[in-house]
Automatic annotation (TrEMBL):
Keywords: Cytoplasm, Phosphate transport, Transport
Name this protein carries in UniProt: Phosphate-specific transport system accessory protein PhoU
Stretches assigned to the PhoU domain: 25-112, 130-212
Protein purpose: Plays a role in the regulation of phosphate uptake.
Species this protein is from: Cyanobacterium aponinum (strain PCC 10605)
GO BP terms in the entry: intracellular phosphate ion homeostasis; negative regulation of phosphate metabolic process; phosphate ion transport
Length: 221
């Protein structure tokens, strides 16, 4: 059953308010997914016009973040939820922090793309692009898991995260061991930042999936 429908089953005022928050979380997630795609286009396709789109969307993402946190805090204070409702609202408050951080990293990647555009493309870019694509898939799957309340989401996404971690280790080793650097080292530093940002974005996607599992099962893993 879809997230918002599941929360509306009992039809109480609390469930209605929680369902409204859930819909906002999903809308925020859609914006974050789009910002991640824009950062990929800027970094690997040279579409620097998307950087401005990321910046504008980050304002909207931050607005959703503040609104959802405030809404959850208000519900917790005024309606004193218990059991599953308390678990859902507390998980939402943590989950939107993960989404907000992914949005921030997407904005940072856009700025890195602008600076990297001044230099020749590095030989590691195809591997970095694959890493970025994989992290985007993780985020998309985590958001689908949230919308469908998939109790197995945490375990599924954690397996995907191992691929991103392995790519990070390999790319970091490549950059750290490079000896034939000519001229400035800025592009190497920027690439190291980029792989770190993408690795962290994947970690936050994993967090989201694990929070979904917690919402459904009540168990933290």
């Amino acid at each position: 059953m879809a997230l918002s429908n599941q929360l509306m089953v009992e039809g109480s005022r609390l469930q209605r308010h929680t369902s409204e928050v859930a819909q906002d979380v999903l809308r925020m997630g859609a914006l974050v997914e789009e910002s991640f795609r824009y950062s990929h286009q800027a970094l690997f396709e040279g579409d620097l016009e998307t950087v401005a789109l990321i910046t504008n969307q980050d304002i909207e993402i931050d607005r959703y973040y503040r609104h959802i946190e405030m809404r959850c805090a208000t519900i917790l204070t005024l309606q004193a939820p218990v059991a599953q409702d308390l678990r859902i609202l507390s998980a939402f408050m943590q989950l939107v922090r993960d989404l907000e951080r992914i949005g921030d990293y997407a904005k940072d990647l856009g700025q890195i793309a602008i600076k990297l555009a001044l230099y020749p493309s590095h030989s590691c870019m195809p591997e970095l692009a694959a890493m970025s694509k994989h992290a985007q898939v993780m985020l998309a799957k985590a958001m689908v898991a949230l919308s469908e309340l998939d109790s197995q989401a945490g375990e599924k996404i954690k397996l995907l995260d191992d691929t991103v971690d392995n790519a990070y280790d390999k790319l970091y080793h490549t950059l750290a061991q490079q000896r034939d650097i000519r001229g400035v080292v800025e592009p190497i530093i920027l690439l190291a930042l980029a792989i770190r940002h993408i690795e962290r974005m994947a970690d936050h996607a994993t967090n989201i999936a694990q929070r979904v599992s917690y919402i459904v099962t009540g168990e933290r893993k």
